[in-house]
From TrEMBL:
It comes from Plectus sambesii. Its EC number is 3.5.1.28. InterPro entries: Amidase/PGRP_sf, Amidase_domain, CUB_dom, NAMLAA_amidase_2, Peptidoglycan-bd-like, PGBD-like_sf, PGBDSf, Sperma_CUB_dom_sf. Keywords: Cell wall biogenesis/degradation, Disulfide bond, Hydrolase, Metalloprotease, Protease, Signal. One of its GO terms (molecular function) is N-acetylmuramoyl-L-alanine amidase activity. This is N-acetylmuramoyl-L-alanine amidase. The keyword Secreted does not apply. It catalyses: Hydrolyzes the link between N-acetylmuramoyl residues and L-amino acid residues in certain cell-wall glycopeptides.
């Protein structure tokens, strides 16, 4: 950020006062072994943290101790400025919890080992007071019996839907399908499903409350007849979650955490393979764009302990913006190779070496799911929000991530 010189007109300084005073330098990065406090930039000076911040706090206590983190105060922009707590020496470790929004004093989380990594990420708009979080070595016998992680709230709405039937085989459940609703509320989603004679197993409200419409053993009507890998009728073998979201807005952390928690339970219950956790757009007959690029799959997979190596590299801006293949009717061996690997992973397309509209849509779906940073980049252009851009554009595919997925499935 550029700071204003005093020679500028005074009114500008007043208008921009909050921006000018926002703190944009991260505090120290190494903490421990004794108990102490980590704070957001500027917290001690009563100054808001800055935009686009990325601060890391490495906390290490004596071998054999765990670390108890307790929030004294935490106020951040709910959607977009987040504190990530990782259960180990770096950000590839498992995510213990993500804190954002307004948290009262006393929320806490405990590590499993003597090292945690905390990162604070803010986006490019809106800042707030930030946080002060205490850390202390804790011994196993002092382990708290509850954690700050909210318990999943599932409301039974199973008597409210008639638009489902029995599965061909009630225990043949192999896939989890994530949707966003387009409709802005649980009620509107429920009404829309009923009006169209459709259903889904779960609806996840913005505040994290889950509404169950259909038993998992039954066949909800949410996924059409799309093909994924060897499965040709997704409703027969999948469980669906509709996430309340219009498709062009971020997902609140509390909602993403609840969806991850519910998914973790489903995946464990039915032993669903990582590659069979799909977004609707991954398999439907190419007219679907859900779940949108705003959905934080990085957080999602971390919560499920899946694909630990998938998001470890940062796609450079030029990689993100590079259009690798233009739609074309000319045969290309490189296109054929990409098509074959996408197909091997599960996507439905013909490996004909021609970058036609079907391949273009599959690449788009792949990027929305596995390269979400591409979509985040698009939110603001020239000071304007680009509505729906995240669903309309396609870029070069991340070869590295495709290779990783094919190798780990
Ligand atoms: C969550 O949101 C739903 C409506 O979307 C509301 O009915 C419910 O009371 C809310 N729950 C909490 C705990 O705020
Ligand atoms: Zn859908």
């Amino acid at each position: 950020m550029e700071f204003l010189k005093f020679s500028k007109a005074t009114w500008l300084c007043i208008v921009l006062a909050t921006t000018v005073s926002a703190q944009s330098k991260c505090p120290a990065s190494d903490y421990g072994p004794a108990a102490g406090v980590i704070e957001s930039p500027g917290f001690a000076q009563h100054v808001n943290y800055g935009n686009d911040m990325s601060c890391t706090y490495n906390i290490k206590v004596a071998e054999g101790s765990k670390i108890l983190l307790t929030v004294d105060s935490l106020i951040t922009e709910t959607c977009c400025d987040r504190v990530y707590v990782y259960d180990g020496p770096n950000t590839h470790s498992r995510v213990l919890i993500i804190w954002s929004g307004h948290l009262g004093a006393g929320s806490f989380v405990e590590s499993t080992g003597n090292v945690v990594t905390v990162t604070f990420q803010s986006d490019n708009t809106v800042n707030a007071a930030g946080f002060s979080i205490r850390y202390a070595p804790s011994n196993a016998h002092l382990t708290p019996t509850t954690t700050a992680k909210p318990k999943l709230q599932i409301v039974n709405w199973k008597d409210r839907s008639t638009y489902w039937n029995s599965r061909p085989s009630p225990t043949d459940i192999h896939a989890l399908v994530l949707h966003h609703t387009v409709d802005p509320t649980v009620q509107a989603t429920y009404d829309a499903l009923n009006n169209r004679h459709l259903s889904v197993h779960y609806i996840a409200a913005k505040n994290g409350t889950i509404y169950q419409l259909v038993d998992e053993a039954n066949r909800a009507w949410h996924a059409g007849t799309g093909t994924w890998g060897s499965y040709t009728n997704m409703n027969d073998i999948s469980i669906g979650i509709e996430i309340v979201n219009t498709g062009d807005e971020p997902f609140p952390t509390v909602q993403e955490n609840a969806v991850a928690e519910l998914s973790a339970q489903i995946v464990k219950r039915w032993k669903i393979l990582p590659k069979n956790i799909v977004a609707h757009a991954d398999f439907q007959e190419y007219d679907k764009t859900d779940v949108s690029g705003y959905f934080d799959f990085k957080l999602f997979y971390a919560a499920l302990d899946m694909y630990p190596g998938l998001y470890t590299t940062k796609l450079s801006e030029s990689d993100q913006k590079k259009v690798l293949y233009q739609a074309s009717t000319t045969y290309s061996a490189a296109v054929k190779s990409i098509q074959e690997r996408l197909q091997k992973y599960g996507y439905y397309l013909t490996a004909d070496g021609i970058f036609g509209s079907a391949t273009q849509l599959v690449v788009e779906a792949f990027n929305r799911h596995y390269c979400p940073e591409i979509f985040k980049q698009e939110e603001i252009v020239n000071g304007n929000e680009v509505r729906f851009a995240q669903n309309k554009r396609w870029y070069g595919i991340s070869e590295e991530r495709l290779a990783y997925l094919v190798a780990h499935s």
